[in-house]
Amino acid sequence: MNDAPASSLNKPDNAASPQGSDASGSSSSLSGVSDSLSKSGLSKRGLSGSGSSRSNLSSTPESLSQWITSSSSVHLARSKQTWTGAGSAAGYVLRYLTPMRRLMMDIVGREKEADRALSILVAHLVKAGFSGHDKGRLRDFLVRGIRSAAKAGYDEALKDRGKNDSLELADQAEKPLPLKMEVAQVESPQWRGYWRDGILQRSWRSLERYQHARRYDRINQPPPTGEEAPREDLVHDVLRAAMSYPKESLESWAGRVSSASGRKVEPDEVQSQLELARIRFAQQIADEVAQTLETPDPVVIQSEIKALGLGKAFSGVRVQA
Fold this sequence. Notes:
By secondary structure, this protein is mostly helical. It contains 14 helices and three strands.
């Protein structure tokens, strides 16, 4: 496989940052990952796949250091699942209902009208699927569908209001607000920001599921003696702590993770699992992005990561096609 240098994903991103995002969806939080890693002694060089990882993990087991040295790459095209091959168009699209609803609210201005328009879109997908329009990026397909559904919902609301025989009832019915279609463009900052947040939120949930799976496996399927894999039962919790409180120390993070996990966690374990977490989190983002494209081509995936402003999540991580 060919390496795609991490620096190619870390150049300044063009996507605008949405206002008011929290740690689950802001570009500034992604910047905090690198800052937190540097603070804890895990340098970019130590995540580049070279033997230098060991110098940063002197207090961790040798097996962990060896694992990181050989497994610190993110594979852009690992996921072969794409939205164009989904068995259920409506079911697949519902994964991204949160960013869709946020954009629809911007267009129509009220929750009731937004939900009504989204139900029109979902009903169409249930009936007609992608109708031969399953090409390119899912976010482009969806913004066009959202525009059409918003217009259909607006026309329905006007029609229903006009059916009232009584002038008094017609006056009491809320007139739909004028549609703000200008916010629903393929490359509008709002839509890209909402979509980026959606990708990040799904990546966080995937990392949390991975953490739970590791805890379950360690309890119910312990590995044979001498074949112990790196412990990754805190990867979600340690990354959350580091990103939410980037100015705190390893000791503080260990205290927070101990409270969340219900077991004693030492600073050295936080340090080692934080490095593992960054690799896993970057891979989850790569997988999520790949699944929103027509073909999982590494060049296209890399371009989409940059367009969405997600490159900072790959800082210091070797990226492979």
